[in-house]
Amino acid sequence: MASHIVGYPRMGPKRELKFALESFWDGKSSAEDLQKVSADLRSSIWKQMTDAGIKHIPSNTFSYYDQVLDTTALLGAVPPRYGWNGGEIGFDTYFSMARGNASVPAMEMTKWFDTNYHFIVPELGPDVNFSYASHKAVEEYKEAKALGVDTVPVLVGPVSYLLLSKPAKGVEKTFSLLSLLPKILPVYKEVVSELKAAGASWIQFDEPTLVLDLESDKLQAFTDAYSELESTLSGLNVLIQTYFADVPAAAFKILTSLKGVTAYGFDLVRGTKTLDLIKSEFPKGKYLFAGLVDGRNIWANDLSASLSTLLTLEGIVGKDKLVVSTSTSLLHTAVDLVNETKLDQEIKSWLAFAAQKIIEVNALAKALSGHKDEAFFSANAAALASRKSSPRVTNEAVQKAAAALKDSDHRRATNVSARLDAQQKKLNLPILPTTTIGSFPQTIELRRVRREYKAKKISEEEYVKAIKEEINKVVKLQEELDIDVLVHGEPERNDMVEYFGEQLSGFAFTANGWVQSYGSRCVKPPIIYGDVSRPKPMTVFWSSAAQSMTARPMKGMLTGPVTILNWSFVRNDQPRFETTYQIALAIKDEVEDLEKAGISVIQIDEAALREGLPLRKSEHAFYLDWAVHSFRITNSGVQDTTQIHTHMCYSNFNDIIHSIIDMDADVITIENSRSDEKLLSVFREGVKYGAGIGPGVYDIHSPRIPSTDEIADRINKMLAVLETNILWVNPDCGLKTRKYTEVKPALSNMVAAAKLLRTQL
Ligand code: GLN
Ligand code: ZN
C-alpha cells in the first residue's frame, strides 16, 4: 500500500528560509548562503519522508518565493520591463519579478484559491516568447536522487497556469490566455523529457483549477493539453493532483478521460462529493490518490474513520491502485509540533502539523496493507476521545446561545438614513469627514515595550503608562492634523486577530505554528479549539482612556467575527458558521460595553470577509448569509446614535455588494488603493448605497507620499459617482507598517484635500 505527500512547507520548522531570504535581500549574506540553507531544508524534508516510509515523495515543491513564479521562470515568461535577456533565470530576475527593484515594481500578487497563501500572477500577452529558462524542477529531482531519494517531481499544470494568469497590460479585453496553450506545451515537453532522462518514473501536475466552476472551453483545454503531451508522457506514471474542493461532475468526467494520465489526486477532506463520483465512475486500472489527511488544518486525523473510507475505496479501485495522501499540499498547515514545548499537553495531543501528518499518512497506508500499528491507532483514538469529551471544549451556555441565533434576523430597528441623522446630531461632523483605519506606526520601541511586558520584564503599571503615552501621542497628532474622527492607534496590539484571541476563551496559541503567506512572510494563526466566550471586556480600558484624552469622537476598534474565523485554524468538529456565531456573541458583548463606556463610534473590521467566500458559486449564498448575519449580531443591539463602522481590505466586491449593503453598517471604509474604477463601477451600475462610505484615498502599502492635489483629484472622481453627504475621506488601510515620516505628511495632505473640496461644494 503506497503513500504520498502532495507538497510540503518550505519555510522550515523555525522559519529558516525566511531569515535566509531576508538576510540575502538585505545584502547581509551571499547567494551561496541562501542556497545552502535551502538545500539543507530540502534534504531534511526528503529524509523525514523517507524515514517515515512515504513512497511517493514530492520534489520541486520547494520554492524561493512561490511555485507559480517558479513556473513563470520555467517558461521564460518574464515581463519585458524586467530586462531579462534570455539564458537561465537567476536570483536577480526572479526576485525582481517577486519584489520589484529600484526602478520596476513587483508583479501582482493574489490569493491562492481560498487560502491565505499568495502567488505571483503571471502576466501574459500574445508576444511572449516562451523558452525553457529554469531547470529547477530537474535540478531538484537530481539533487534528491543524489541523496538516494527517488521523488515525484511536481509541476503546476499547464492549464491551471494559464487560467491563473492575467492578460498583460493593453490586451486585457481582447486576449484569450488559453490561446497560449500551444506555445507553452513545448516547454512542458522539454522539462518532462529531461525528467524522464534523469530517471523519474512519476510526475505530478497540480491542476487545482479543476475544482472551480469552469466553462466548457476551459475544460476542453485540459483535454487538448494532455492529448498533446501524451507521447512525451508515455512511459511515466502521471498524476493529476486537484485540491481545495471536490471536482464538479463535468470536470470529473474530463479529468478521468485525459490521455496519458494514470493517476488522480483528490481532496477528500473538503471535497465532500468526490467520494460519490469515485463510487459511480472511477476508471479501471488507474491510481486513486486519496487525500484524507487535511493539509489545511492542524487537527490530528481521525485514523479509524480514514481507514474505513480507504477500505471502501479499495473495494472500488483495487488494493494496488489506492494511494494514501494528503488533501492538499501541507504548505497550508504549520510545520512541526515538536517545537511547541509551551503548548498545553492535552491540546497538543489533539494536533498534527505537517511533520506529524506525514506519519499519519504512512500509518494509514501500513494499516491498509495489514500492518496496522495498534499502539499508534489507539493513541490517536484516545486523543480524539479526549477532545470530544474535554470540558475545555464545551461550554453549554455558549452553545445554547449560539444555536438560538440561527432563526432570528438581528437587524437594527431604524433604517440607516434615520440612524445617520441621529448620529450626525450627536457627532456634528463636517461634510467629507476625515478618519483613519485604526493602527498608527508600530515603532521598534513600541514592540519592545509589548515584548518586555509579555516576558514580565516590566510591570503592568509601567506597561500601561507606556501605552497610554503612545495613545496620547497619536491623539495629539490627529488633533494637530485636524482629523475629525480619531483612533487610538492600536499600540497594545500585535495583530488584529491574535489580540482578541488571546483574551477570548476557546483559543490556543503556538510558538512556531507559522504558515507562509507570501514570499518570506508568514502568519501564525490562533487555534480555535473550544466554544468561544469573552470572560471580560477586551478593549474598553484603552478606548475609554483614549476618549478621555480628546473632545473629538474616538472610534472603538474591534475585529469582526468572520475575520477572526478566517484568520484562525478552526474547529473541524462543528460547522464554521457555528464557531462564527459564538465569536459574534463575544464581540457583541464588547460592542455593548464600549457603548456603555461612552464610545459613540465603533469600528468592527471585517478585513477578511470576502476571503472566506467559497470557491464554488453554488456555495456563496449560504456563506454570505451567515457571515453577514454574524456581523449584524455584533451590533444590532446598539442605539441609533451609536455609529457602527466596518472596514474591508479589498475593493473588488462587485459580486458581493448586496451582502455588503446587507451588513447594514453606518459607515464602511474600504481599500481602494490601486483602482478607483473597480470600486466605483459598482455604483455606476446603479447600486444605491445609503450608508457612509470611505474608499481609501491613498495607498498605505507604499512609502510614497501623495500630494494634496492628487488626493483631491481622487475624491472628485468619487464625488462624481457617490453622494456628497455619504463620502468619508480616509487612507485605504491601517498605518501600522508605515513610518511617522510618511504618515504625517500623507495625512496632512489628506486633510488639506478634504478641506479644499469642502470649500468648493
Ligand atoms: N484596524 C486595523 C488596522 O488599522 C485594520 C487592519 C486591516 O484592515 N487589515 O490596522
Ligand atoms: Zn485593511
Automatic annotation (TrEMBL):
Cofactor note: Binds 2 Zn(2+) ions per subunit.
Reaction equations catalysed: 5-methyltetrahydropteroyltri-L-glutamate + L-homocysteine = tetrahydropteroyltri-L-glutamate + L-methionine
Domain of life: Eukaryota
Binding sites annotated in the UniProt record for Zn(2+) 2: H658, D662
Pathway entry: Amino-acid biosynthesis; L-methionine biosynthesis via de novo pathway; L-methionine from L-homocysteine (MetE route): step 1/1
InterPro entries in alphabetical order: Cbl-indep_Met_Synth_N, Cobalamin-indep_Met_synthase, Met_Synth_C/arc, UROD/MetE-like_sf
A Gene Ontology biological process term: methylation
Amino acids binding Zn(2+) 1: H647, C649, E671, C733
GO molecular function: 5-methyltetrahydropteroyltriglutamate-homocysteine S-methyltransferase activity; methionine synthase activity; zinc ion binding
Keyword terms of this UniProt record: Amino-acid biosynthesis, Metal-binding, Methionine biosynthesis, Methyltransferase, Transferase, Zinc
Positions of the Cobalamin-independent methionine synthase MetE C-terminal/archaeal domain: 432-755
Active site (record annotation): H701 (proton donor)
Cofactor(s) required for function per UniProt: Zn(2+)
Residue stretches making up the Cobalamin-independent methionine synthase MetE N-terminal domain: 3-315
Uppermost EC category: transferase
E.C. numbers: 2.1.1.14
Pfam families the UniProt entry points to: Meth_synt_1, Meth_synt_2
UniProt: L-methionine binding residues: I437, G438, S439, E490, D605
Function: Catalyzes the transfer of a methyl group from 5-methyltetrahydrofolate to homocysteine resulting in methionine formation.
Family per similarity comment: Belongs to the vitamin-B12 independent methionine synthase family.
Protein name: 5-methyltetrahydropteroyltriglutamate--homocysteine S-methyltransferase
Lineage: Eukaryota, Viridiplantae, Streptophyta, Embryophyta, Tracheophyta
